[in-house]
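Reference record:
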Amino acid sequence: MHITSLAAINATTLMAGTTAGLFLTTNSGTSWKSVNGDLHHLDITAITKVGTRIFIAAREGGIYASDNNGTSWIDFNDSNTKDVNGTIALIYNSITDRLMVLNSAGFFVTDAASTVIVGTFSAALSDLPSATTIYSISNSTNQWYLATDKGMFISATSAINW
């Protein structure tokens, strides 16, 4: 099994995404259990914690959310993310409550990620040069950062403008 992503839920609870599903330990890794629940796509590429909610990205299936440490999963997709191949990155900003997603169809953002049931994603590529390939995304409380094939780009978290 190949671990592709890892997130600390608390001091002893970790969630690991693999190419064969999602696993949870509540004893610092001594034992693990599968928490795939009703997930249809099991190649997990990213995990991020948003308060008590956990988001995962599945390479062939988009974004899913859990409010109970993986016992059940909410399909958190719209047409920009559902069943889109190449969902490879997630990043969350706690100040703006925005979740960013990178997939083969583009780069998208949704608001109120910690509270809404289904994400409504809009394109976040405005002002980037055409045919830009994004390699990595990050943020601080006030800025988003993109590492691309055309250099690094920065935007305020409050209004995306690269």
